[in-house]
Write a structure and sequence with these properties.
194 residues; alpha/beta; TIM Barrel; 6 helices; 29% helix; globular; Thiamine-phosphate pyrophosphorylase; Aldolase_TIM
């Protein structure tokens, strides 16, 4: 099972400086390996249309849809309370803020790792080391406040599979450059054999 890793970009059309497909295209050019389509408030037809647009700019098999409906794909990212979809979905992730919800999915996002501009007052911040302890052996993405090369590197050193970034890329004047900086800084640390 391939799980998301490296730089993972979450969409937010409301904060994007350009159309979200353009921002995502630039982020992918900069090194984003996966994309999670959020936009759960869009009417269904508009969400399907946006999903199709994103599939044209995201590497094949690397678009994950937030919510239990994969919109014609086979990868979803669930909120803490979303039901797990049927067996036709090959990759299931879940947003977690504590240890609940860790057992029935392929990977989790743990958040917030750092204080975040996108969701002020949301927290308290877990920190990368505490998130790693919480995840245990489960693949995890660090989400929340990962807005600098130093923070991305700290998450890699703590054992994150990747960093999930929304605001730093969506709000960027140069989303390709920001993605390049964060992707380059995130290098999973090799675990030495014991």
């Amino acid at each position: 099972m391939v799980t998301p890793g490296g730089l993972v970009v979450l969409t937010d059309r409301r904060m994007a400086r350009e159309p979200v497909t353009s921002v995502v295209r630039a982020a992918v050019l900069g090194g984003a390996e996966w994309v999670i389509l959020r936009e759960r408030d869009l009417p269904y037809a508009a969400r399907v249309e946006l999903c199709d647009e994103l599939r044209s700019v995201v590497p094949a098999g690397r678009l994950i849809v937030a919510g239990p409906d994969p919109l014609g794909g086979d990868a979803v990212h669930l909120a803490a309370t979303d039901p797990r979809p049927g067996s036709s979905v090959r990759l299931v992730g879940r947003s977690c803020h504590d240890s609940s919800g860790l057992s029935d999915v392929d990977y989790v996002t743990l958040s917030p790792i750092y204080p975040t501009v996108s969701k002020p007052g949301y927290g308290p911040a877990l920190g990368a080391s505490a998130a790693a302890r919480l995840a245990g052996k489960r693949a995890w993405l660090a989400l929340g406040g990962v807005d600098s090369a130093g923070r991305a590197a700290e998450c890699a050193a703590a054992g994150a599979s990747g960093v999930a970034v929304m605001g730093a890329v969506m709000r960027a004047d140069d989303p390709e450059g920001v993605a390049r900086e964060l992707a380059a800084a995130f290098r999973p640390q090799a675990v030495s054999p014991s």
